[in-house]
Design goal:
Blueprint: H1 8-13, H2 16-26, H3 28-40, E1 45-49, H4 53-68, E2 72-75, H5 79-82, E3 94-99, H6 105-117, E4 120-125, E5 138-141, H7 154-171, H8 174-190, H9 194-200, E6 209-214, H10 217-233, E7 236-241, H11 242-245, E8 258-263, H12 269-283, E9 287-291, H13 294-297, E10 302-305, H14 313-333
Parallel strand pairs: 1-2, 1-3, 3-4, 4-5, 6-7, 6-8, 8-9, 9-10
Helix pairs in contact: 2-7, 2-8, 3-7, 4-7, 4-10, 7-8, 8-14, 10-14
Length: 351
């Protein structure tokens, strides 16, 4: 590759501030209608359906629904419907299916069952003419244009944004609404961390394994970071919730592992830093900390400093930009083209 700026992934990362603003603005009326029906019908359960990056957007949505609303949120297992012909009843549920291409047969089948049973079925895709857009209850487009990068960046970011936008409408939470209003500007500001990332690339060029640690909202994001690193740079990456790491995996920690901690959420930073400091002192590991706080940054071997406003929901956006840029840049540093991952198809159909 002659230049990083020729990469579709790199270019689409840097377009995301515009797309986040567009997807909220252009879907505002539909978000309002869905929220009004949810409240009118007193729906208390939301089921989120997706695969890959779409399901990682759902993980953020799951946290947000249960943090900001009184709804119980769950992640669907489509095989219950498509392989086992299970008896799930979605008649009093909000079911949201997400897919970049909109051709996910199993996601469609869950939505179709919800629609047929009288629940509220919401389809979100980036392609208007697709299987999932035939769901007639509610449809929203990501409004981010054709995604040319095989590694989903702008579709993931807009999927997550529409879920957060719906949570904001249902909850009427002013803090969340303000965070979403600020998100485009914060995303654009986060592009400036690229030079920091370039500075730590030599330490990862020959790595074989990277472990990612986070808690809460940022753990949801870490699942997506794991996928981005795996599919772009062919690195063995794995993420853990800090709370889960004590329950077994900690025994396999060693000083030759590369470790990245995400601490950009006031509600969970203490938990993350407790594990970070324990592993540094007891296992003598090298750590990279992605954070918006200087007092935390100085506790790590190296740190990526996000803009100060990147906390909580805005911390998810900031950490997403870091993760995408890191995956793209480390792939090229290792001699791979992130636009053509081996074995990856832009339209993936599962049943």
């Amino acid at each position: 590759m002659a230049s990083i700026k020729e990469s579709n992934m790199y270019r689409e990362i840097h377009d995301q501030h515009r797309h986040v603003a567009d997807c909220l603005r252009l879907n505002d009326a539909t978000l309002e209608k869905i929220a009004n029906e949810v409240k009118r019908r007193n729906i208390k359960q939301v089921v989120l359906v997706g695969r890959g990056s779409s399901d990682h957007a759902n993980l953020v949505g799951r946290y947000a629904f249960e943090i900001y609303t009184d709804m119980i949120a769950s992640i669907a297992t489509p095989s219950i419907v498509t392989q086992y012909q299970g008896k799930s009843d979605y008649s009093n549920c909000l079911v949201i299916g997400i897919s970049q291409c909109g051709e996910a047969q199993d996601v469609y089948e869950v939505l179709k069952r919800c629609q047929d049973q009288g629940g509220i079925a919401v389809s979100i895709t980036n392609v208007r003419e697709c299987l999932m857009s035939t769901i007639k209850d509610y449809y929203m487009n990501l409004e981010c244009g054709e995604e040319k990068s095989f590694t989903a960046c702008k579709s993931y970011m807009t999927q997550m944004t529409l879920l957060l936008g719906l949570v904001a409408k249902i909850s009427d939470n002013e803090e969340l609404k303000q965070a979403l209003e600020q998100a485009p500007a914060v995303i654009e500001k986060c592009y400036g961390i690229e030079e920091q990332i370039r500075g730590i690339l030599p330490m990862y060029r020959n790595a074989t394994h990277i472990t990612l640690y986070a808690r809460g909202l940022l753990y949801a994001l870490a699942n997506e970071a794991e996928l981005k690193i795996i599919e772009s740079a062919y690195l063995d990456a794995r993420c853990y919730a800090c709370s889960d790491y004590y329950h077994g995996p900690i025994s396999n920690t060693n000083r030759f592992m590369q470790n990245i901690f995400y601490a950009a959420d006031t509600m969970t930073n203490d938990s993350t830093m407790e594990l970070h400091n324990k592993l540094r002192s007891e296992k003598n590991i090298y750590t990279l900390l992605v954070t918006n706080r200087e007092d935390l940054a100085v506790q790590a071997d190296h740190a990526i400093r996000l803009p100060e406003e990147c906390d909580g929901i805005l911390g998810v956006y900031g950490c997403a930009i870091y993760s995408q840029l890191f995956a793209c840049l480390i792939a090229i540093e290792r001699g791979y083209n992130p636009d053509f991952p081996v074995g990856l198809s832009k339209v993936t159909v599962t049943r």
